[in-house]
Amino acid sequence: MSTTINTMLVEKRVIHPPAEFSAQARISSMEQYQALCEEAEQNLEEFWRNMAESGLEWRKPFTKVLDDSNAPFYTWFEDGELNVSENCLDIHLKNGNADKTALIFEADDGSVETVTYRQLHARVCRIANGIRALGYGKGDRAILYLPMSIEAIAMMQACARLGLTHSVVFGGFSARSLHQRIVDVGARLVLTADAQMRGGRQIPLKAAVDEALAYEGGDVVEKVVVYQRTGADINWEEGRDVPLSELETGQSEECEPVAVEAEHPLFVLYTSGSTGKPKGVQHASAGYLLWAKQTAQWVFDARPEDVFWCTADIGWVTGHSYITYGSLAAGLTQIVFEGIPTYPHAGRFWEMIQRHGVTIFYTAPTAIRSLIKASEQSPEHHPSRYDLSSLRLLGSVGEPINPEAWMWYYENVGGSRCPIVDTWWQTETGGHILTPLPGATPLKPGSCTLPLPGIDAAVVDEAGNELPPGAGGLLVIRRPWPAMIRAVWGDENRYRSSYFPDELRGMYMAGDNAQRDEDGYFWILGRTDDVLSVSGHRLGGTEIESALVAHELVAEAAVVGRPDATTGEAIVAFVMLKQAAPSAEEAQKVAETLRNWVASQVGPIAKPKDIRFGNNLPKTRSGKIMRRLLRLVAEGREIDQDTSTLENPDVLKQFSGVY
Hints:
The protein is α/β, with parallel strands linked by helices. It has 18 helices and 30 strands. Helix 13 links the parallel strand 18 and strand 19. Helix 4 crosses helix 5. The N terminus is likely disordered.
């Protein structure tokens, strides 16, 4: 396989960290970064040993760092014991930060609730004691199906405190999807809410739980704990359903954390968007927490006074690592947001940054691109209309960010003074892998730059041979790291075939295509299954999308392939313009303009054969573009897959016109 990225698309500008930022940063220079990388290279186990001993509080110290005797089933710190919740909460009660604000929750309607570390600890203990009183403990599994809330974070922490393995299911998944995960993980307990609020709408949750449990195998669940978020009228099944308020009543605000083995499964998180049986990514307690905490400190350059806002949902790994676990372990004050970025107006994010004095803002490229369009259509809600001077660092997560959106984010949100950490990582990696360090790394818009210390990443061909700069290939990680996936729940063969195929000789296969430039910087070209083969040429969908979005008319674009008798595959572009979708006559002219533009930016071979216009792209409620659904539309096939996670399922109907 050989894919390349056209050099015309690569933003040549290099942006160096501001001197005043670097002067105070945890990692303040490339020399310091390179020294850490060299330390890991010379003695990998000693590097991780030092980090684990200084970074976590252990109940039983470990003596063995890494066991690779059963590779690719690696274990880390396996003879040590600790408790994850203790490392996230109790540690701050001991170090003088008990009364520091832990969470600032802003509800969909704008109301605000604030809790300190002491108050969050007490709430977690009450819930944990209540769960224990129901008869659940270490070794049991719990499913969480909840809205963004303090209660949801407290329930996750309560599970960790008791040694329950939890599996959070995003609140947008359907009853059928929920049922699959309940049965697969064998959950005896479900923690849910009556409903959630999003964009002024009440969306039921308990009703979906009732439906899921009515399917075959749903009777594995014995108890359902219900947080009454909205007071909605719901079904109560006597003997099974327990109000959260009742669960907490009379419970002590102290709960001794249960010491668990370092390799004890902290959570199983099912990957989204896959067809067939969902894939349960299993993470261990110690290695995962160590890396989530360490990366929160390194990548976000965490300081005691920071107000950190990660806009992700706890239903995804970003919400696990950088809301519930890593950032709490690092002692950050965090924003937790229930709503959506455009309700009640397109300036909601900027308004919240101004109101709460946010210093670190971490969001998705899809949100950024949507807000670019929204700010042009509603200039009164442009970021420049708000006081964003509290910001000192910006972050991007979820998918590659195109250089144009990067520059808009940098200039309009960060005032050309805030470094951007463009982070590449996955559910399976547990935490950041490729990312700038904001006080050290020179930035290139559109590149996730370099591996973190201790991470050996490379771009290889299908036989595992490293490729030279400029050549596209498979992104791999060549050495194990503590936060890596431990297993696919209940399926060893799927774990091996998905992540450690024989042909790569023990390397972890990320499933992304990438290339490195002459400075060693990584550029993500898209998922391996998003590579298009047109007349024998392999093209990255991300490359073509970046070209489209670089045009002044385009707000966002998604590119997929469809079968073509002549070229093998034809390129189909789904385009959202900055203005309303054009009429049929205008659309033909705009489509031709965009084809010529792509040809000039990438090459004639990359010209989309079909262009479809819409006012929005099909996205999950976390902002991920659902390209697998767009492939069905491109092929003219019926949408027979679950669309319940889409923010607006009707959005697919608008792409009927082909130009």
